Amino acid sequence: MGTSTGYDAPPAWGAQKRQITQRGNIALTPTKAKSYLSNHISNNGGASRISYGGGVLGGGGDRSAQSTIGGFAGFVGQVAHDGLDEALRRNNLSDLVGGSPADIVLGLVGLFGHADNSHDAVDARSALSRLMDELLANAETSEEVESVFGDIANVETLTKLTMKFFAYHLYEQFCRVHFEHLVQQHGDAVAVSFLGDIMGCIKSLVLNRSLDIDVYEVDWMTEWGNFSNEIMRMTLEVFS
Length: 240
Prior knowledge:
With 240 residues, the chain is mostly helical. It has one domain. Helix content is 69%, strand content 0%. It has helices spanning 14-23, 30-43, 47-51, 64-82, 84-90, 101-112, 119-135, 142-152, 155-186, 188-207, 220-237. It is globular, with a radius of gyration of 18 Å. The relative contact order is 0.18. The mean pLDDT is 86.
């Protein structure tokens, strides 16, 4: 659950923040959850602006989310081509060769998740960690990590995973804006339940959705960072 340091959003966000804080103990319908997410995206600048680094929460052209998932996709390609051990060595992570899946996840999140503590970078790291934890949930050895990465090293699967990553990034942002206020007003249990409903909405609308885009025209080994802008935009537009 995204519980990183809260964000003091601009005044334009006030109406939604007040409504969510006041009504956080009321069960969410799918329609209302989608409305909250749509308003969140609109307040943040809209899908197109966010996707190209102009969002309010990212600010200053921050594209941490796009570069994070782009770096991960490139690493998956390295694993498919050269094997996990060599890919780790090439990225100055030799100490993780033969390491546990948990240690490998931490190392890769640190490698691709940017070292700064900007809000967008923190959310991107959390989203990548969530995605990798899911991918490697059943992996017990580094050999099994290599097998999982080999299985996902194709354009279609990486496109779906990129969309899932941006959905999780949206969730982390939403949590950052609203979690602390929900806890202060209603307590931990209500806050967790409310945000669980938000995640349920995200999953139902995004995670099984296909994108109307010709992914096979993309050289994902070299172009994934730019291609991810469009995937992010299309992901966010699901909620409009």
